[in-house]
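re: ur question from yesterday

yeah so i grabbed the chain u mentioned. its 406 aa long if i counted rite. heres the sequnce exactly as i have it in my notes:
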Amino acid sequence: MILGKKIGAAVLSFALVLSLLVLPAGAAGEIGVTIDGTSVLYDDGYGRPFLDSAGRTQVPFRLTMESFGCAVYWNNETRTAVAEKDGTRVEVPIGAPYLLVNGKRMEMDTTAQIVDTRTYLPIRPVMEAFGAYVTWDNANRLVVIKTGSSLLRVHFLDVGQGDCILIDCGETEVLIDGGNNGAGDEVVSYLTPYIDGKLDYLIATHPDADHVGGLDAVLEAFEVGEVIDSGRKSDTDTYKDYWAAVQAEGCTISYGEDRIIPLSSLAALSILETGNDWEDSNDCSVVAQLTCGNVQVLFTGDMSQQVETKLLPLFGDIDVLKVSHHGSDTASCAEFLSVVKPEYAVISYGLDNAYHHPAGETLQRLFDVGATVYGTGKSGSIVLTTDGWTYSFNTSQALTAADAGV
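ran it thru and got these structure tokens back, copy pasting raw so excuse formatting
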């Protein structure tokens, strides 16, 4: 987990501690744990949290996970601790540097342990496997775990060479683009656990196939409250399939005009009008900025540098940038980046794609402003989680110059 840092110099070192949940080995004082504000009551019978040799916080397995609402099991044959909740099964083998989430292996930088016949688990990776948000209160030596409606998540889906983003704040869901034609079923499968009743907003940034290709499948699978379209048409079969599905849905349709969409008491999505009279359909992309408390995320579709520079007055300091056009050489000019100053950037691209995305010069411009850059081609689906004050990512596999397309 990597945490956002644009919260002032005094908090930067604090944010680094949060990101790792690491304390100096042998630091004094007991460690506490709260789950949604309620303290977990450890004692000598259950065991107490401690720091392992890697400086990671280990907690008693049974009491912690039962306090989180899990059913817990012990597989004596494989020496594996198992916790289940709401369809998620997490298996943590003792002494192994990984855990299994519904059968999928996730690496850890420490291991679960047995100490004085009690089973202890590294709290951060286990809780994050259940979708919780974990931070460290250094002043009170307290692990703070938050769940549910207090959190907002942005999912940058790995759809290969295309874009697909889900904003989920519990109360409202927004989908931005849907990848290529072949991604439709995969997108629907990914969205299904998160869509409660209906998909509130569907944004088609522009008519290119790698953005609208999977949206007909989404429109067929879910009730959609409103479609926000760029207003730019296309003669391709892919676009026609998307537009026919929109018409069949019979939902509200709007066309990317300036507006603010409330998502929750803490979050809103601003649509920034760019116009649809640009020669290149990429430049007609619907641009949106998410505000959740103090955290700002900018979604740019495929807009090019000429649009970035013309619309500079619309932009300001942000935390996270969804880099336009899959990190091509037309994305993210130096002038634009000097205005938005992202701490982190996410590029959606397919590994070994024919377009050689991301471009090396674009990566370098991002590095030059101090941005840490993640990519779906390297990390798979990337999830940003925020409580409106801090934010984190589910990956630490940052792109380097060596990840540029060739």
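noticed a couple things. The first helix runs from residue 9 to 20. also Residues 5-28 have pLDDT under 50 and may be disordered.
anyway ttyl
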